[in-house]
Each structure stands twice: as C-alpha cells, then as structure tokens.
Amino acid sequence: MRCVLHGSYRSDLDAIDQIADQFRAAGWQVLAPEASPVESIKDGFVRFKDNRGKTNQQIELEFLEAMKSLNPEGFSYFVNPSGRLGPSASYELSFAHSIGLPVYFLCPLRALPALVPAQTVISPEAIIDYVVAHNQLPPNPLLPQRDELSLFRRVFNL
After folding, report:
1. b/e per residue, 16-30, with b = 16+ CB within 10 A?
2. Separation between Cα atoms, residue 138 and residue 28, nearest integer Å
3. pTM as predicted
4. Which CATH number covers residue 130?
5. Which of 93, 97, 135, 138 is most buried, judging by how many CB atoms fall within 10 Å of its CB?
6. What are the DSSP calls for 46-100, one per residue?
C-alpha cells in the first residue's frame, strides 16, 4: 500500500510523523512527506532538508506528482487534528478528487465547504486493520464513477 500524508507541517508535523511511522510499520510506503528533517520555514512553507534549492512551487508540484503516482492502489490521508485544512492541503484535496484518488481524514472537516462523508473519517489504525482484514482500502463514496473519471482524465489530459 502507498500513501501521501497531508496537513499543516507547521502545526501538526509531530502528528504527521507519528502517522507516517504507523503506516511504515505496517509495511506501507509513505511517498510524502519525505523522512527528512525540517530545515526551515520560509513564507509559511515548511522546507525539509531534501527541498534545498527548490521553490515552494517546485515542492508543491513534486507533492502533486507523488499523489498522481498513487493511482490506482494508493490513497491520501489528511492529518487534521483541529478539523481544519490550510490552503496547500485544501488545494491538494481538490487535486485528489480531480484524479479520483481515495481520501481519508483523521477528523471531520471544519470551516471548509468540502464533502466529507462519515466513512472517510477514520483513524490510521482502522485503515491498517481494514486493509489487513480485507486486502483493500475501506469504501470511499467520494470516488467518482469509472466513466466519469475516464471522461475527466480525457478532458484534462491526465
């Protein structure tokens, strides 16, 4: 299983690291964030040592590229202990929806008008247990139907 973790690297990095460790301990590959120490915070953007010499836009594009590489068997997990998502994570949520990537959340969303069905709010432990028991991700009602996804990808050349 492969995944990308999203959230506020400024305020929730410890929680993101803890969840990344849980997924890695289950034998899963966490594509982002990289297991690299934080080097600095510039313009409100957390920069890891591996990001040296890259612009914020390059870092975000690489992150989106990692998300795109997850399909069809990966997922995005939003680490949002306060129930909120910042601008970058909100952008990434839209991108995940646009490419049909399964998304799950640590907590229900607050202050963001996004559809988050109750079954997509699930702990890391519950996702791991579900995959171990069923050899697949938990059901995700946010995934578009196959024909809609195919049309979207064709229109946007994805």
Report:
1. bbebbebbeeeebeb
2. 15
3. 0.84
4. 3.40.50
5. 93
6. EEEGGGTT--HHHHHHHHHHHHHHHTTT-EEEEE-TTS---HHHHHHHHHHHHTT
Instruction: Tokens 């994805």: give the residue.
Output: 158
CA 137 vs CA 7, 34, 46, 49, 74: distances in Å: 21, 22, 30, 32, 9
* Structural domain for 146, as ranges: 2-155
Quote the CA–CA distance of 105 and 85 in Å, as a whole number: 10
Look at the chain and report how many structural domains it folds into: 1
Is the Cβ–Cβ distance between 137 and 102 less than 8 Å? yes
Residue type, 77: Y
pLDDT per residue, tens digit, the chain (158 aa), is 999 999 988 888 889 999 999 999 999 999 988 776 777 777 777 777 777 888 888 888 988 999 999 977 899 999 999 888 888 899 999 899 888 899 999 999 887 777 777 889 999 999 999 999 999 999 887 665 555 556 656 776 66
